[in-house]
Amino acid sequence: QVQVVESGGGSVQAGGSLSLSCLASGYTLWMAWFRRGPGDEREAVAAIATKEGSTFYADSVKGRFTISHDNAKNTMYLQMSNLKPEDTALYYCAATGRSGGFYGWRHVDTYNYWGQGTQVTVSS
Q1: Strand (E) positions, 14-110?
Q2: Could you read off the pLDDT of 80-101 as tens digits, one per residue?
Q3: What is the distance, to the nearest Å, from the Cα of residue 42 to the centroid of all Cα atoms in its chain?
């Protein structure tokens, strides 16, 4: 069983920056950030293939957010810049070490390990 723990987040004004981290306790092939805003469904924000390094982004964050992974630290990062009020959400780290059962980087069923979430609040 792999555990993933998020850190970072907080409150910032629009246009500001924040950084999130997610430490995984074991082997992963894919890691991702999801978010759920007030009254919204959970949506995929960005994902990374941790061994190969390919990255994927939702259109809403492309050019503003950067996902990365440090293999030595087994930690994923999300650098968020030019934040907007609509980025306000609970951000979740997700991971999987399975080579099968891949439904696409945006699909929640691709990931079998989830963190508790960390809040990001952007004020206008």
Answers
A1: 18-24, 30-36, 43-49, 55-57, 65-70, 75-80, 89-96
A2: 999 999 999 999 999 999 887 7
A3: 11
The dihedral formed by the CA atoms of 86, 90, 96 and 47, expressed in degrees to the nearest 10: 20
DSSP state of 117: -
Determine how β-strand 55-57 pairs with β-strand 18-24: unpaired
DSSP code, position 86: G
Strands 118-123, 10-13: pairing is parallel
Contact 26, 2 (CB under 8 A): yes
DSSP state of 40: P
